[in-house]
Amino acid sequence: MTDNYVAKRLKVNGIVQGVGFRPFVFQLAQKYGLKGEVANTSAGVSIHVEGLAGHINSFEADLAAQAPPLAYIVDIVSQPGTVKQFSDFAIEKSQGESRMSTLISPDVSVCDDCLAELMDPANRRFHYPFINCTNCGPRYTIIDDIPYDRPKTSMRYFVMCPACQAEYDEPTNRRFHAQPNACDDCGPHVSLFDNHQNVIGKHNPVDQAVDLLKQGNILAIKGLGGYHLAADAANTDAVRRLRRRKIREEKPLAVMSADLATIRGYAAVNQEEEQLLTSIRRPIVLLRKKTPNPISAQVAPHNNYFGVMLPYTPLHYLLLKRDFTALVMTSGNLSEEPISIDNEDAFNRLAGIADYFLIHDRNIYLRSDDSIVRHIAGAQRFIRRSRGFVPIPVFLKNEVPPVLACGAELKNTICVTKQDKAFLSQHIGDLENIATYDFFKLTIDHLKRILDINPEIIACDMHPDYLSSQFAAEQTAIPNIQVQHHHAHVVSCMAEHKLEGDVIGLAFDGTGYGPDGTLWGGEILIASSHEFKRTGHLATVAMPGAAAAIKEPWRMAISYLQHAFGDDFQNLDLPVLGEIEAGKVNVLREMISRQVNSPLTSSLGRLFDGVAAICGIRKQVNFEGQAAMEFEMLAADSTKQMYDYQWVTGENHQLQTAPIIKGVVADIQSRVPIAKISAKFHRTLIRLFAEFCDVVRRESGLNRVVLSGGCFQNATLLSGLIQALHNKEFAVFSHQQVPANDGGISLGQAAVAAAMAQGA
Ligand code: ZN
Ligand code: ZN
Ligand code: FE
Question: Is 293 helix (H, G, I), strand (E, B) or coil?
Fold first, then answer.
């Protein structure tokens, strides 16, 4: 033995179990001739190595740099150890605790090695739709409890054949301890049914399913995190039928294509978007349409974008082999209910939509919708964070007490915290029906169980009518902290970026409960994690008809016109006024002036709706934000002009919208194209908010601006405002790990509640 024969102990924290980490360590130790052992522990993976110091250094460097694709390393703690004269390097059985509280990997797409085997006629898993290995396949959606071992997953019903078992037991095999390991002899199978639950043929159900899709049928297809409804995206008749049966009038439908080259035939893909599309997380990526393109106009009407994803399960690859340009792959649900995951439930709920069912017998324990992302201003932005990303935690700046945050009403997610980690759930949906509320409760139980978390504090929105707030109020055993909606938005972004102290927070969205009895949504706050002050907001206007004004933007048009012009607005020469019955306008005017069913709002989302309706974009919408979205897409970028704006100083600053409305009306009367009006409107808002931040900076000395709320899904507003604030030398923070919309708000609620509890 020489002097530089040494020992080291390494502790690796992160997602390092069930991802092939120990075999990877084993092989790395072989490579450098090191002796010792590796084992799973409650905190992650623990390694003892001994050998030449130089070799141990190389081993350590490779450990982080070459980790398996599913591993997610948070940190590696390295300490000198005692040389114990190991004779070889071994993988030890799991150590210690009965309940292993480790991090679980999300479900990810099939890997290249498995894909090659899938398509190789000589391989024993040729065309087997459930092929997987330690580097790929289902995880989160098949786990029922911890520790993550086969008996705790939905694979427990399948006993491995000798060939599969041998792979599973052999440390150097790429299927060593791959819990979902299976083959055609021992694993799950697909079968094809009609919508009366009759089996259609027993041979080649996948090929038959492809034939049926080619013929224009709608298929319910069981996937990784739930059912999809599939149809040939180039077949307008099929897509139209799908929309009618699913009661989904105009909301865009996601599509899936076999490869990038096919996608480039109908959508523009830049380098960053290519990276998002091909990542193992396989989100739906919003891509600009090419015109003309071979996809049916029914897929994403009145929209410049397609939501596109690449295949992520072996079954998807088999379905897409036969030259479809794209398949519509939309959530297997009726309207806004949760997606089906259970075969019986799918037959019950989807038989009126799908002509045929391609199902399988591996249970999905927890549904997880496809994630949706868009590349804006140099970064990936989530519209929905679900499959492929959940349950990767957001790492917080400090350790916090265990909190359960219940989220908001729409696009609900929940969040639980443990030490310095915040776990956001998959997308739960709009808490407006019993099915979604049940899923909400089930997800809370499930996350508490698989993460081994016992919340000591519960956090929710201040809105007393939200089902999520009512659920929180019912949990009387632990303290309940109500968090203001826009404060939670701002703090969700602060938590992502580990910000402490006070910031200028811009929280722009459709609606949120304000403590003063109005509906907030165009808020400039001075906020820290535990408190906030409203320093400015958009001028309040009436929302005649309350919730009806969200579905019918023409109501907001009337409200903004009356706000800007008084009752004289009826004499304006505006096409939109000619399209609404005079009687209706009068009723609305009365409602507003008598304050009947017309709550006041400072929402930027409603301002977008109102301006879009004044411009004649649409008087009614099929989904929230549709008018604003179409208005944004029309913006043509050439103009440098702007509308007038001003703010009024009082107890807090009011940003006046009347001058903007007057400018828009004047432009419409002078026949300025809507594309130019939209561009001017966006430029105006960007300048207004940036200049207002300057005022707040002068008053408060704060230089950090945090952007949050659903309005920041507007790419023109987000990228324009980031640029304008950078030009003024602000430090700007926007969402990259969780959605800017209400899907990210549970993180902010958890962080606020934790900060309040810690008395920060
Ligand atoms: Zn694989
Ligand atoms: Zn087998
Ligand atoms: Fe919101």
Answer: coil
Instruction: Round the average pLDDT of the chain to a whole number and report it.
Output: 94
Report the separation in Å between the CA atom of 217 and the middle of ligand 2, taken as the mean of its atom positions. Answer: 33
Tens digits of residue pLDDT in 116-133: 999 999 999 999 999 999
Q: Which two tokens stand for residue 425?
A: 């759930």
Say if residue 319's pLDDT is above 80: yes
pLDDT band at 655 (very low <50, low <70, confident <90, very high): very high
Mean pLDDT of 350-379: 96
Domain termination residue (choose one: 333, 360, 387): 360
pLDDT tens string 587-601: 999 999 999 999 999
Q: Are residues 648 and 705 in the same domain?
A: yes
Query: Over the stretch 675-705, which tens digit does the pLDDT of each residue have?
Result: 999 999 999 999 999 999 999 999 999 999 9
For residue 193, the cross-strand partners are 199, 357
* Residue that finishes a domain, picked among 309, 340, 360: 360
Question: Relative to the alpha carbon of 187, which ligand is closest?
Answer: 2
Residue 146 confidence (pLDDT): 78
Q: Which residues surround ligand 1, an ion (CB under 5 A)?
A: 111, 114, 133, 135-136
Same-domain status, 115 and 196: no
Kindly state the DSSP code that residue 362 receives in the 8-state scheme: S
Query: What pLDDT sits at residue 96?
Result: 53
What pLDDT is recorded for position 2?
A: 55
DSSP-H helix ranges across 602-714: 604-614, 626-634, 658-669, 674-700
Does 326 have pLDDT greater than 50?
yes
| 8 Å CB contact between 671 and 686 | no
Q: What is the mean pLDDT of residues 319-329?
A: 94
CA of 121 to the centre of ligand 2 (A): 17
The residue ranking higher by pLDDT, 322 or 251, is: 251
Same domain, 221 and 351: yes
Instruction: Say if residue 82 is in the same domain as residue 144.
Output: no
Residue 176 and residue 258 in one domain? no
CA 64 from centre of chain? 27
The answer to whether residues 693 and 725 touch, using CB atoms and an 8 Å cutoff, is yes
State whether 332 and 355 are in the same domain: yes
644 and 573 both lie in a single domain: yes
Which residue range(s) make up the domain with 161?
Answer: 104-188
What is the 152 CA–ligand 2 centroid distance (Å)?
19
Measured in angstroms, how far is the CA atom of residue 739 from the centroid of ligand 3? 10
Q: What is the CATH number of the domain that holds 300?
A: 3.90.870.40
Domain with residue 719: its CATH number is: 3.30.420.40
C-alpha 389 to ligand 2 mean position (Å): 29
**Residue 593 located in a structural domain:** yes
Q: Which residues have CB under 8 Å from 745's CB, separation 6+?
A: 407, 408, 413, 461, 485, 488, 489, 492
pLDDT of residue 760: 56
Whether 501 maps to a domain, the answer reads no
- State pLDDT tens for residues 13-62: 888 887 889 889 999 999 999 999 998 887 789 999 999 999 999 999 99
Higher pLDDT, 40 or 314: 314
- Are 235 and 150 within one domain? no
Q: How many domains does the chain have?
A: 4
Taking CB atoms within 8 Å and a gap of at least 24, the contacts of 554-558 are: 554/580, 554/613, 554/619, 554/620, 555/588, 556/606, 556/607, 556/609, 556/610, 556/613, 557/610, 557/613, 557/614, 557/619, 558/585, 558/588, 558/589, 558/592
> Length of the chain, please?
760
Q: What CA–CA distance (Å, rounded) separates 33 from 62?
A: 14
Strands 600-601 and 415-424: unpaired
- Spacing, Cα 131 to ligand 1 middle (Å): 7
pLDDT at residue 98 above 50?
A: no
In a domain, 117, yes or no: yes
Ligand nearest to the CA of 520: 3
- For residue 133, how far is its CA from the centre of ligand 1 (angstroms)? 4
In a domain, 713, yes or no: yes
- Tokens at 370, concatenated: 């496809």
CATH assignment at residue 128: 3.90.870.30
